[in-house]
Amino acid sequence: MPYLKIPGFRKLPQTGVIYVMQRAAEKGWKAGDPLWSNLGQGAPEAGVLDGAPKRVENLNIPLHLHEYSPTSGQLELRQKVADLYNYRYRQGKSSQYTWENVSISGGGRIALTRIAASMGSINMGHFIPDYTAYEELLGVFKAFVPIPIIQDVTCGYQVSLEHIKQEITGRGLSAVLLSNPCNPTGQVIAGNQLQQLVELGRDYNCSLILDEFYSHYIYTDVNVNSKYPTMISAAKYVEDVNNDPVIIIDGLTKNWRYPGWRISWTVAPKDVIQVVTSAGSFLDGGANNMVQQQALSLLEPEYVIQETKALQACFAKKRDYMLNRLIKMGIKVEKEPQGTFYIWANLSGLPAKIADGFKFLEAGLEEKVITVPGIFFDVNPEKRRTYARFHQYSRISFGPAMDELTRGLDAIERVIKRYK
After folding, report:
1. Which of 162, 63, 69 is nearest to 110 (CA)?
2. Which contacts (CB < 8 Å, 24+ apart) does range 190-195 have?
3. Using 50, 70 and 90 to split pLDDT, how confident is the model at 224?
4. Cα(116)–Cα(120) distance, rounded to whole angstroms?
5. Is 98 exposed, middle or buried (0-12, 13-18, 19+ CB in 10 A)?
6. What is the DSSP track for 298-367?
7. Can you tell me the distance from the alpha carbon of 153 to that of 409, in angstroms, rounded to the nearest whole number?
8. Exposed, middle or buried by CB within 10 Å (0-12, 13-18, 19+), for 111?
9. Is there a contact between 340 and 180 (Cβ–Cβ < 8 Å)?
């Protein structure tokens, strides 16, 4: 294991986004620089969208909120999260979420870290490709063994339920971690398929840890005249909220477009919530108390519906715009994203000198555009595997506002013309 010169400290890898942002900074990038386009950062535009609710611009901070928050979060906010899930996904069901099924934490990584610290000596399945931050998370905690499950273009970046069943039974998986919709491919498990996945976890006693941070960015079956926008969650298919092994993570970062607030939640059986709260007591101590109070109004059903409809209308246009331009440039898109705000781009058809995620990144930086090499999504804890997948791929984000998106695609076009 590589160590630093300072005694006791080991070297740690950077997540893909952190790496590319450092490289961009070395080339002169600064946040807000109108000459640059950041198509690498995993964040949505946080400004005003047509038809969306008014954005929060001021925080009211009563004196008592200068105190520590409870490690599990403010009880009122925990109940508000439970109420939203019951309203949106569990109407008419006898088993309902309560505050005891919710834990608040300071962002998605903290929520995932609490869960990982709570796992026992088990085999945990994870998918490839998937969210870059899973890699170190799955490697730093030694109690469980991460088991990779491959998904690629041959299966449309969606592993069949039968394959997942074989992995659970054959490798003795006690838990499976996945993002849904998937970051970076944008593929979605929904409807009957999601219901059957929940049943699989229940029938084979395997916990499903579902990162649902992009669950409002859905571009399939969108009906603008429907009362409800299309949103997905495994919560819809849970039979007993305290016995079904379904653990859901979400927060304000993506679906509410407030990444800087660093507020997330875990929705799970109350026994799990008690354990992850205990983990939080020594890992992080609890989320920001002042911001939790402000978040209450953002979880009103009417607010969520209005925000999600505006979000989907805006991001669907950006998705189509980026798809059309990339394809015209000769970049392959094997599967159009059904969700998230990313294009999983196959670079193999480009000139050899840029048909690689890192080379594509470096060439783009010369034109002031940032992307993320696909190899970062080959989740490989502690580099146990020597073969790296997806080196000819790049994740390109349509999260920024349209003017920055256009500027970035113009830059990519210049890169490709230069190397042809």
Report:
1. 69
2. 190/218, 190/220, 190/232, 193/161, 194/232, 194/234, 194/236, 194/237, 195/236, 195/237
3. low
4. 9
5. middle
6. GGSHHHHHHHHHHHHHHHHHHHHHHHHHHHHTT-B-SS--SBSSEEEEE-TTS-GGGSSHHHHHHHHHHT
7. 24
8. buried
9. no
Q: Which two tokens stand for residue 208?
A: 């499903």
Identify the structural domains of the chain with CATH numbers, from first to last.
16-50+306-419 (3.90.1150.10), 63-301 (3.40.640.10)
Q: In angstroms, rounded to a whole number, what is the distance separating the alpha carbons of residues 360 and 43?
A: 21
User: Helices 402-419 and 357-366 meet at what angle, rounded to 10?
Assistant: 110
| Cα separation, 216 vs 186, whole angstroms | 12
* Closest listed residue to residue 182, CA positions, set 200, 207, 156: 156
Residue 290's Cα: distance from chain center in Å?
Answer: 24
Measuring CA to CA, how many Å separate 342 from each of 39, 310, 368?
9, 18, 19
CA distances from 112 to 122, 255, 293 (A): 16, 17, 22
**pLDDT class of 386 with cuts at 50, 70, 90:** confident
Average pLDDT taken over every residue of the chain: 94
Q: What is the mean pLDDT of residues 134-163?
A: 90
